[in-house]
Design goal:
The structure is a single chain. By secondary structure, the chain is mainly alpha-helical. The protein has a domain of 51 residues. Helices cover 19% and strands 5% of the residues. It has two helices and two strands. The protein has a two-stranded antiparallel ribbon with strand order 1-2.
């Protein structure tokens, strides 16, 4: 992966999602076959709820119910 932060996805102050053409990580190119879901990209960017819902109807990570932790997975 590139060390150049300008090559990585980011959100502008107005909430515009920018995924530079030069981004070497194709996982962030959600429109490609190998890309993540748009909601996963937004989660990686720690998007606030207002901006999140401009892009997707998927639940924001803060709205998801907390998963119960279990010791060994057996009951």
């Amino acid at each position: 992966m590139s060390d150049n932060k300008q090559d990585m996805p980011y959100l502008m102050e107005d909430g515009t999602l920018v995924i530079p053409f030069s981004c070497p990580d194709h996982e962030y190119k959600y429109w490609k076959k190998e890309g993540k879901k748009l909601s996963e990209v937004l989660a990686d960017l720690n998007t606030d709820k207002e901006t999140w819902y401009k892009f997707t109807t998927d639940k924001h990570p803060d709205d998801a119910p907390a998963k119960e932790e279990s010791g060994d997975g057996e009951e």
